[in-house]
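Per your request, structure below.
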């Protein structure tokens, strides 16, 4: 199994919203009510840019969810397995984890997560991305969507694209 050069990381690839909900729905929903205390992205030190092939790390008061996309429809959600103080070792790149390196991501830090929504892409009839899953996070002053950008991660800030079918995860008490 390819670990993306990250010690302790073992992605578990799933396809489709139903599979993600069955495996992680309860735990994702339980994040609601917690503040986003840190958000880490793998950073290319030579290009000074986000290296979007590695997982997105979101820490909610000690519960870290690691979200990663690959290929067209693979989504991995793992928990508390990546230490952001040990940089990824990827041949040909100098990488390190950076906390909130993007202004829109930094703006979410400290906000309480209100809701988690699993998103299912529903584009045009023959859109190859139809059925792919993304994770939507709702905060008091903005939304974050971690989605697939054709074999890597992407972040969207603001409401999810209307072509996503929304599947809210009920908040657990």
């Amino acid at each position: 199994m390819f670990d993306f050069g990250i010690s302790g990381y073992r992605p578990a690839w799933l396809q489709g919203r139903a599979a993600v909900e069955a495996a992680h729905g309860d735990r994702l929903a339980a994040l609601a009510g917690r503040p986003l205390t840190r958000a880490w992205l793998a950073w290319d030190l030579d290009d000074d840019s986000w290296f979007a092939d590695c997982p997105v790390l979101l820490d909610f008061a000690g519960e870290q969810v690691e979200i990663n996309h690959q290929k067209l429809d693979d989504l991995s959600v793992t928990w508390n397995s990546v230490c952001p103080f040990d940089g990824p070792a990827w041949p040909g790149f100098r990488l390190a984890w950076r906390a909130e390196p993007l202004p829109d991501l930094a703006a979410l830090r400290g906000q309480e997560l209100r809701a988690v929504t699993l998103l299912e892409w529903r584009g045009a009839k023959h859109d190859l991305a139809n059925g792919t899953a993304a994770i939507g996070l709702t905060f008091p002053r903005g939304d974050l969507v971690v989605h697939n950008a054709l074999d890597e991660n992407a972040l969207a800030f603001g409401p999810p694209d209307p072509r996503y079918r929304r599947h809210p995860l009920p908040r657990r008490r």
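The first helix runs from residue 17 to 29.

Regards,
D.
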